[in-house]
Amino acid sequence: MYEHVDPFIGTGATDLPTPKGLAGTWWWPKPQTGNTHPGAMHPFGMVSACPYSGAYPTGYGLYDFNTEGVPDLLYDRPVASGFTHFQQSGTGAIRKYYNYFRVTPMLGPLDDLGTTWDLLDEVAEPGYYAATLGSGIRCEVTVGPKSAVHRYTFPANEAARIVIDASTGGLAIPHSQTVPLKAHLEMLGPGVAQGEIHVEGVPLAVHLEIDAPGWRQHLWYDRRLMPGGTRLDFDYIRPTTLRPFGLIFMGPSRAEQTVEVRLGFSLRGCETARNNLRTDVGRSQASFGGRRDRTVASWHDHLGKVEIKTESKDQATVFGTALYHSLVKPCFAPDESPWTTEGPYAFDICTMWDIYRTQLPLMTTLFPQRSVALAGALLSICEQEGNLPIGYRMAKGADRFSRQGSALAHTFLSDLCQLDLPGIDWDWAMVHLEMDLRRTYGEDYLVHGVAHPISHTLDLAYAYYCTAAIADKVRDRPLAKQMREHAQGWRAAYDPGTGLLRDSAFYEGGRWNYSFRLLHDMRARIAVAGGDDAFVGLLDQFFGYDAAPVIQPGVRPSVAEMEAGYDLCRFEGLNNEPDYEAPWAYHYAGRPDRTAEVVHAVVANQFGTGRGGLPGNDDSGGLSAWYVWATLGLFPVAGQNLFLVSAPAVAESNTRLPDGDLSITTTGFEPVEAGGPISYVQSIAVDGKTLERPWISGRELRHIRNLHIELGPQPSGWGTRIRPPSTSDPLPATGGEA
């Protein structure tokens, strides 16, 4: 899918055609921008490099800080003051935003540093970004797993220069700057330097080499050169007294002269940063092309895991880009933990809330060893910092984001445990899993039987269910029994009078958004709502069946406008993460036809090409991974090692799994278009054998070679009799074993 990727998708405010049909009734209150960036990234790599405007939220782009509706503009066109390293991907308000060690090619004096130049002729491909600054300098960047390589092509000029600003961090909007609290820089020789800044408790080191023979090099401080100086040291920097500082390389340039800048990074000191650069780039000069070629090859391999058959060029672009966005986070940085422990380490788990339902199951399916490494990193973080994080950035001290969710790592680890993947010490894991359940909201859950916000009651009950599965793995039967008893606490969260969650405070949403998550006992949950018909009725109301079209919030929406929208209690069209699972809740009530209708409406209306092609924050690939699953006709029930099956959005797909290829084929397929016909599953065959049930297990998925889905224009009886498993099922689910 490499050739179909457009990294610009999601970098702009949402710009989709007016939704048709059911999708026209959905209301999206959260920021209407994908918040992605087009910079150079390596699959699951530690380092990214991107043009820097200082705008929200990645440092690339045009926008001011935004929490609802269409974002305000900071700029009316793409601009940059240089190229920075380390960016989020698709996140919203997540505190600080990296953008360290800005590299700026210039033709003017040092006083011009910070000027923004127009970005012209932008080109973005997986692992590569290029643009021409308004100054006339052509800029290209690529990255390795722990490095970045820049190449600048200058016009003829007597005062060409490349400036590295080591004091830059965060965004150029109020309250979003990241200030290094300690720093040192050192010249090592002609064209070679190193440095380290301490940001948010982490020592980020860089080893830098520049290919510019004959150019002078200096340290600078407060925009003034320091001739003769070879080292700068700051033991204590206060934000109120910060003055910019860095390195400068300067000299005359010939027309079309290229200058290459190579940077290796590490959280373990300058020597490790130099070794990382050697590993990623080698020792030769003019290495831009070689590093780019290797990164492109890695992207070809990763994106080649899934292929789809479609006649629509736009659909191929949307899918290829969604797969790409699903494979950039978390950032894996083995042997880089700030505690000097060896082994797996990862950051930009931003956040579990966003990725545990869709993106992590996709990574586990396609790259199980990545998930094993992430599990090891999470357990190491817990051992060092005291909790399994809900969110984790390149910052010492886990970002707990406690309002968002509780104990979500348990869901991820449960899936791994049930797949019997090697490389995890589950006895060690159980110590941390059990302890983590008692922290923050977990104490309220145990003492009072309920935790507020009420969504945490569901989180914790589900985490106990997931942890019970792991306790079974280590053969601790008494603990597994105790965990299963605690897992029944989800019932206290619901009001039998309404079939919805009880009144409470909610994070980014209301009780309708959170009421339709997929629990471990959906049979009993549907009974709380009054049975299948009542539950389907609530879902129909939530998804806007028979409702009138609505108008989305615009720029700076009024309080009254937002309150009126929230009062709709409506599906937010994948603009909000709690809604990711809701379309699939119909499966548990025997209505897979409704799942097909809602998923069709999302795929056809909520994703598109161009910078405005996403309905909301991509959230580290959580949104994009949803699209990947929906296109394939599958949805992972995270924590249960289970996949629900529905009508795919393409006629045929092929997925390279570790144990062999899985082909999904169809008959009777109709292209998915806004306002077009819905395709409903009529029957399914797994390797030639009939599958009556609308789900398959994770173990089965690994070994199935062909899933053939017969589609038709009308709902059928398929999937209406046998429901996905629930813990209160009287007998194990049977029928149509694959």
Description of the molecule:
By secondary structure, the protein is an alpha+beta fold. The strands form six sheets. A ten-stranded antiparallel sheet has the order 3-6-7-8-9-18-13-12-11-16. Strands 1-2-4-5-10-17-14-15 form an eight-stranded antiparallel sheet, with no helix packed on it. The longest helix is centred in the middle third of the chain and has 19 residues, at 455-473. Residues 734-738 have low confidence and may be disordered.
What is the structure about, briefly put?
The chain is of the alpha+beta class. The strands form six sheets. The protein has a ten-stranded antiparallel β-sheet. The chain has an eight-stranded antiparallel β-sheet with strand order 1-2-4-5-10-17-14-15, with no helix packed on it.
Strand content: 15-25%
What is the number of helical segments per DSSP (H or I, 4+ residues)? Answer: 18
Sheet with the most strands: spatial strand order: 3-6-7-8-9-18-13-12-11-16
| Inertia-based shape | globular
Radius of gyration: 26 Å
Query: How would you state the average pLDDT, rounded?
Result: 95
Reported for the largest beta sheet, the result is: 10 strands, antiparallel
Task: Please estimate the helix content.
Answer: 25-40%
| Structural class assignment | alpha+beta
Sequence stretches where pLDDT stays below 50 over 5 or more residues: 734-738
Q: How many strands appear in the DSSP assignment?
A: 31
Distance between the termini: 29 Å
